Amino acid sequence: MNKFIFCCCVALLYFNSAYTQTSKPKTEPAKQERPAEEKKNASPDLSFNPDAAVITHHTVTIKGQKVPYKAVAGTLPVWDEDGKAIAGLFYTYYERTDVGKASRPLVISFNGGPGSASVWMHIGYTGPVLLNIDDEGYPVQPYGYQENPYSILDVADIVYVDPVNTGYSRIVGKEVPKTKFFGVNADIKYLGDWINTFVTRYERWGSPKYLIGESYGTTRVSGLALELQQAHWMYLNGVVLVSPTTLGIERGTATDAALRLPYFAATAWYHKKLAANFQQKELEAFLPEVEDFTMNQLLPALNKGSQLDEGIRKSVAEKMATYSGLSQQVILQNNLDISPNLFWKELLRNEGFTIGRLDSRYKGVDKKDGGERPDFNAELTAWLHAFTPPINMYLRKDLNYKTDYPYNVFGSVWPWDNDNDRTGENLRSAMATNPYLHLLVQSGYYDGACDYFNAKYNLWQMDPSGKLKDRIQWAGFRSGHMMYLRKEDLKTSTEQIRAFIRASIPSKAARY
């Protein structure tokens, strides 16, 4: 799982937090404000309030329809066994105000890392505002944001949650051990508790409920699907996995190496590094051939190792070269096992570029063309460039959330405990025991960290009998990890989620 985890390594203060100030004219007063006398005598040092919120009111036009909504930006506690607040999670909650909320769908949104805030899908995908980028997702200036005409707020209310040490979320007190938060199963447990608190406080028990996670967030929500059922008796209608991880499903060395090839082929196709007969095909028509070769020829060859016939080895390497854009020599030198780092460095080496990890449409420039891995992740640098100014501007200006502390796009969650990751099996079990629960998976063909073919492999292993397949959907997009940054894919993927929500609200009893 480590290859799916990208956390920043800066040290963080454990007392960081936010304070709320008097709202603008069209804004409701901040909840739980301190008394005037207390404010007058307050220390100039910022202190963490794990339970506070600011409410503002807005309108967004979605698909030509004006949608009024309220936005709640604030913190809500994580409680320990004794009812003491041990952390405060920052969240942004959007609730449509011209319809009743009792039975209206609720989407609970997480990003990944672990150690990443929910900024990405918040202002890049499903929320009511959209950051300024070009149509392919690259940064533009001046920084800013606009209405999101593709937001799913017309069909569902949404809450974006920042786990501990991300966004404005913080631990309360130095004595609270990190192990309560920083690990696959600890993360699932405390977030399940927090969701219960949120659903209760905002009176959403009657709502059809959905979890959406991206990257490590898919590990998180897959585990939460079962945790919410077993520990909180909260049953979901749907789970959306955007660019899923391996979900704890074992691969083995040979399988892991083989499953990368379809992603290599998609990326080589994008950069026009393949023969004309492949380049002339549509990507979606070309990839099934590579997938078939991967499962039926490459995987058996890698499993044979040194027992593989030399003629077959060369034949397999030649085929890999035609699909990947790499030379047969490089493939043979690496025993048919090309690491992602080598691929990102090698594909455009002769042109003086590297390619991105999370989105291989992006190019980078290294200090030297030699070597076996890029100097930096070109796509992540571009995304931080594009996202960080707008989220800080938006939270302070439009949502009136004031603080002198930084919004941690990435925060330290080290050390993270990856042991006993059974989240793929958790999700399967949740679906088996809840006939209402549906699954939607969205993948970018050019994502090299959580690649599309591994996402397909997840589904095959999670449901080997095929008995759940009528409740499972998979979709691929001609973009990368955050496929929604490409405008064409944003339109398609949000409409897909909208249809998924509508289709998973049942008209009959839950039974097989």
Helix-strand blueprint:
Layout: E1 28-31, H1 36-40, E2 52-62, E3 65-79, E4 85-96, E5 106-110, H2 119-126, E6 129-131, E7 145-147, E8 157-161, E9 170-171, H3 184-201, E10 209-214, H4 216-232, E11 238-242, H5 253-258, H6 261-270, H7 276-279, H8 283-304, H9 310-324, H10 328-333, H11 340-346, E12 354-355, E13 363-364, H12 378-397, H13 423-433, E14 438-444, H14 452-462, E15 472-477, H15 487-503
Parallel strand pairs: 5-8, 5-10, 10-11, 11-14, 14-15
Antiparallel strand pairs: 1-2, 2-3, 3-4, 4-8, 4-9, 6-7, 12-13
Helix pairs in contact: 3-4, 4-13, 6-8, 8-9
Task: Describe what this molecule looks like in 3D.
This is Carboxypeptidase C (Cathepsin A). Keywords: Carboxypeptidase, Glycoprotein, Hydrolase, Protease, Signal. This protein has 512 residues and is of the alpha/beta class. It folds into two domains: 2-248 and 386-503, Alpha/Beta hydrolase fold, catalytic domain (Rossmann fold); 253-376, no CATH class. It is built from 15 helices and 15 strands. It has helices spanning 36-40, 119-126, 184-201, 216-232, 253-258, 261-270, 276-279, 283-304, 310-324, 328-333, 340-346, 378-397, 423-433, 452-462, 487-503, and strands at residues 28-31, 52-62, 65-79, 85-96, 106-110, 129-131, 145-147, 157-161, 170-171, 209-214, 238-242, 354-355, 363-364, 438-444, 472-477. The strands form three sheets. Strands 1, 2, 3, 4, 5, 8, 9, 10, 11, 14 and 15 form an eleven-stranded mixed beta sheet that branches. Helix 4 crosses helix 13 and helix 6 runs antiparallel to helix 8. The longest helix has 22 residues, at 283-304. It is globular and about 70 Å long. The two termini are 35 Å apart. The model is unreliable at 1-42 (pLDDT under 50).
